[in-house]
Write a structure and sequence with these properties.
alpha/beta, Gyrase A, domain 2, Rossmann fold, 5 domains, 5-stranded parallel sheet, 20 helices, 15 strands, about 15% strand, flat, RNA-binding
RNA sequence: GCCCCCGUAGCUCAGGGGAUAGAGCAUCCGCCUUCUAAGCGGGUGGUCGCAGGUUCGAAUCCUGCCGGGGGCGCCA
């Protein structure tokens, strides 16, 4: 808010200078107002003059000086002085006590603080996880889930109307569903003591046996009798829905609830796949060759054309997925966001090409690719899961380290980076663990408030004099708090939810510094009141940040002493 | 061969046109009569993979190369 305020003053100054003929330029550049690294450069600095110099045909320092002289008088309320420095930076030095005004604003805005208008009026569909219903969610799906859900929360905070959707890959003609069903069927028969062989490329994880067991318990021993094709179809339905139920349960325990579970099969049932193929043909972007139907994706930058319908008449996964994305656009969203694993990156070009072929703006489809996740126990790479065999399940990691730690760790790095998670570290209740560091700051705040209550110190009103908040640690903390709305907006603009963990750590760090240097309870009454309000404002921002991350903000954290 | 991601402190990574490059961990030295020491302060530690280019200014943008990971099905 203070940054926006300064930016507005600068814009006003530019307009005034322009009107007076002191400065000539066509467009206001996209300049920045940032807290400089070094205190001698003021509280906030702007690069506007350097960006404008060429247009204005003057050297940057001259431009800076002109801007400085045309700043509106209103800024005198908060600004002590403005210096021109370096290559042409405008350095703003704020009056002692400016920080207090920010604390008041934060508290006045309450739960609204941190919200922005960035996406007001825009509908977004975030499609994520979308795991195959043939196995439990994996460690990789967990990253997808954490990034997608937090991004959804962030976009909501920015005013977007957000919906979360899970696309179920349940096409009945797909080989994977059939294989899965055949695997479950084989296990089921084995349970009944019948000789049954697993399909060669079947699913060999323990969970398949569990599903067979569940089916036996709920449907009895006669489900594998009758006409073979009917049996397999039946097993497809039952096994698939059991698997989906488990995925939904895991996600709910991970703090994620989808607005919609969208079935691939429903696209076939509604004729949407066929309609999309016809539409592509009409537009001239689908053609027959070698007995198959092809998408002319190479016309839109893809390296080659792709098969939509195989020579055997079966549509490919791509065909359904194109129909699905068409359906999403037709539902009226302004923006579609997909979250895919790195192993699907090669698919991006063809999906965007398909959207272009259908006449949609491919830029309205944002596909985020996240890199792999490796799990370590100390320095040892964890490869296998007992239950799922060749993959590590999300469930077992949640069970071991908890939702809070796992969500935080997933968002500790950019989705562009491969992520290593160390189970030992995530479980450790110590200073090494960043989740605890942040949560501990919150618990400390609650502890101060509890003690205040015990001592009969009431929470001060907003009329309290906040200009006494001038200690460097207080100002540093308030600056971090003041950044919150800007940070929330940046997270959305760059699709970078991981920035939020960094921000949470920054706020926690600033608070711990304040806590150490500035005694709250027992200080001089005016100061005590002001500090109590600062503490409350910090709590509000921390709680909100953690809730955007889907991480809890505990009111107490007792250290467990281990010998 | 082509495509995507990464290469920054001993380790794990932020920063992705702006001033003297940051954090955590590790390591060394300090700080608990007083709101939770799961905390705080300080020290050590860097040719931002290499070479060109663009720019007033490059870790950041462009090109090429090197190294690591992933992907290149009428699988999903």
């Amino acid at each position: 808010m203070i940054r926006q305020q300064i930016a507005d003053w600068i814009t006003t100054a530019l307009r005034t200078a322009q009107a007076e003929g002191a400065l000539s330029f066509e467009t206001v550049p996209d300049f920045e107002v940032e807290p400089p690294r070094h205190a001698e450069h003021g509280d906030y600095a702007s690069n506007v003059a350097m960006l404008l110099a060429k247009q204005a045909r003057r050297n940057p320092r001259e431009v800076a000086d002109i801007v400085r002289q045309h700043l509106p008088e209103a800024c005198a309320e908060w600004v002590d002085r403005v210096e021109v420095a370096g290559a042409g930076f405008l350095n703003f030095f704020l009056k002692a006590g400016w920080a207090g005004a920010i604390v008041r604003t934060i508290l006045q805005q309450g739960k609204q603080y941190g919200n922005t208008q960035l996406g007001t009026g825009q509908r977004v569909l975030i499609e994520f996880v979308s795991a195959n219903p043939t196995g439990p969610l994996s460690l990789g799906h967990g990253r997808n889930a954490a990034v997608g859900d937090t991004l959804a929360r962030i976009m909501q905070a920015n005013g977007y109307q957000v919906e979360r959707e899970f696309y179920i890959n349940d096409g009945e003609n797909s080989t994977q569903i059939r294989n899965f069903a055949l695997s479950v069927l084989a296990r089921y028969r084995q349970l009944l003591g019948e000789p049954a062989e697993m399909p060669e490329d079947g699913y060999f994880g323990e969970y398949v046996k569990e599903i067979a067991q569940t089916i036996r318990q709920t449907h009895g021993d006669t489900l594998a009798q009758g006409e073979p094709e009917t049996i397999v179809r039946q097993f497809e339905q039952i096994a698939k829905s059991l698997m989906l139920a488990e995925q939904e349960r895991d996600l709910r325990d991970f703090g994620i609830v989808f607005d919609r579970w969208y079935s691939e099969q429903s696209l076939y049932d509604a004729g949407a796949v066929q309609a999309t193929l016809d539409h592509l043909r009409q537009r001239g972007y689908a053609y027959e060759s070698e007995g198959a139907l092809w998408l002319r994706s190479s016309a839109f930058g893809d390296e080659k054309d792709r098969v939509l319908v195989r020579a055997n008449g079966m549509p490919t996964y791509l065909a359904a997925d194109v129909a699905y994305h068409r359906d999403k656009f037709e539902r009226g969203y302004d923006l579609l966001t997909d979250l895919w694993g790195a192993d699907h990156h090669g698919y991006v070009a063809r999906m965007k090409a398909a959207m272009s072929a259908l006449g949609y703006d491919p830029n309205r489809l944002v596909i985020l690719i996240y890199q792999l996740v490796n799990l370590y126990r100390g320095t040892e790479l964890v490869r296998m899961s007992k239950r799922a065999g060749n993959l590590i399940t999300l469930r077992e990691v949640i069970d071991e380290i908890g939702t809070d730690a796992l969500r935080f760790f997933y968002l500790l790095r950019s989705h562009d980076s491969t992520l290593d998670i160390d189970l030992e570290l995530a479980k450790e209740q110590s200073e090494k663990n960043p989740v605890f560091y942040v949560q501990y700051a919150h618990a400390r705040i609650c502890s101060i408030e509890r003690t205040a209550q015990e001592r009969g110190v009431p929470m001060p009103t907003l009329e309290t004099d906040l200009t006494v908040l001038t200690h460097p640690e207080e100002v540093a903390l308030i600056k971090r708090l003041a950044d919150f709305p800007e940070e929330v907006a940046l997270c959305a603009k760059h699709y970078a939810p991981h920035r939020l963990t960094a921000y949470a750590l920054d706020v926690a760090r600033a608070f711990h510094g304040f806590y150490t240097e500035c005694r709250v309870l027992g200080s001089e009454p005016t100061l005590q009141s002001a500090r109590l309000l600062l503490t409350r404002a910090t709590r509000q921002v921390l709680t909100r940040t953690l809730s955007l991350l889907g991480v809890s903000a505990p009111e107490r954290m007792e250290r467990v002493e281990d010998e």
